[in-house]
Amino acid sequence: MRRALPSTQALACFESAARHISYTRAAQELSLTQSAVSRQIIALEEFLGVQLFRRTRHGVLLTEAGTQYAQQVSRWLHGLERDTLDIMAHQGEGGPLNLAAVPTFATRWLLPRLPQLAREHPEVTVHIDVQTRPFLFADTVFDAALYAGTPEQVARWPGVQAQWLMDEEVVPVCSPQLLATAQAREPGRAWLPVGADIVARMPLLQQSTRPYGWQQWFDAMGVAAPRALDGMRLELFSMLAVAASQGLGVALMPPMLIEQELARGDLIIACPQPLRGNRAYYLVTPALAPDAQPAPALRVFSSWLQQRAREHRPA
Questions:
Q1: Phi and psi at residue 171, in whole multiples of 5°?
Q2: Of 12, 64, 101, 150, which residue has the fewest beta carbons closer than 10 angstroms?
Q3: What is the pLDDT of residues 119-145, one digit of tens each?
Q4: What is the per-residue pLDDT across 132-186, written as a single tens digit (0 to 9) for each?
Q5: Are the C-beta atoms of 283 and 161 separated by less than 8 Å?
């Protein structure tokens, strides 16, 4: 079946004219004559059966349909240009991988490991954008997504397949100075871990997207904590890590997201009792037909990521 696709030249002329609201400036940008730009846009309007520009005494103005179409065309042309440059750079081998990812996991766990991917597979280039919610792959340029959620949330994501990477465990962490203050009555044990009952008396940092996190942790520890819902509220794990390292309170954090802070001693584990919730990290990709194969870059990245996740998981 023949596709209803206009010519790329017509789309390029339209996108430039729409961006400049001027045929003259579009012609200058594209090294064409103004009449050539006009002919291309007229041909595009005839192809679509829709008026994109309204001619006025002073030039042209986009119609409402033209404004909406210009946004779509601009996104498509930029994506086509990026993909063209990528395949030219890689000469058809390996190639780019457009990855959507939850921000803290990407910044604190994935990015420190990407130099290893670059050494082992220099033919693969990973581009990362932030996405925290499920989306339709057909409406984006993404090839895959790193997603944090529950099995139920993953199951409700339509048209995808998901590879489990690792479960999420959280432990209480804080600055050494704050823990020393909490243990002032126990000389000589200032920085040693404490029990959940002592954590219950310390200032708590709350994650606004998980308002009952501390309550769940104290319930699992069997400790009464009347102040489990009190404390500064922050949205992201990265914010909690900074606030905790500055001594503002104790935060419930996955240790894998604060590896550098733990190594430097900016944060220490206040109580070594983890809580495993029902959230996990997944690599999500579009579902393929039974006889279809993922792109080479995605196959390489998926295999490499699974290996890194296995190394991280407890034995």
A1: -135, 155
A2: 64
A3: 999 989 899 999 988 988 888 889 999
A4: 889 888 888 899 999 999 999 999 999 999 999 999 999 999 999 899 887 764 4
A5: no
Is the domain of 24 the same as that of 158? no
Quote the pTM value.
Answer: 0.67
Q: Are residues 174 and 159 in the same domain?
A: no
Give residue 188's pLDDT band: very low, low, confident or very high (50, 70, 90): very low
Write down the H helix ranges in the chain: 8-20, 23-30, 34-48, 64-90, 103-105, 114-120, 151-155, 176-182, 196-199, 213-221, 237-245, 259-264, 296-312
**More reliable by pLDDT, 289 or 174:** 174
Beta bridge partners of 251: 173
Structure tokens at 56: 């006025």
How many structural domains comprise the chain? 3
In which domain, by residue range, is 23 found? 6-88
120 three-class SS: helix
Q: Are residues 36 and 184 in the same domain?
A: no
Longest dimension (CA), the chain: 86
304 token code pair:
């490499």
Distance of CA 159 to the CA centre of its chain: 19
Q: Burial, 44: exposed, middle or buried (Cβ in 10 Å; 0-12, 13-18, 19+)? A: buried
Instruction: Indicate whether 146 and 179 sit together in one domain.
Output: no
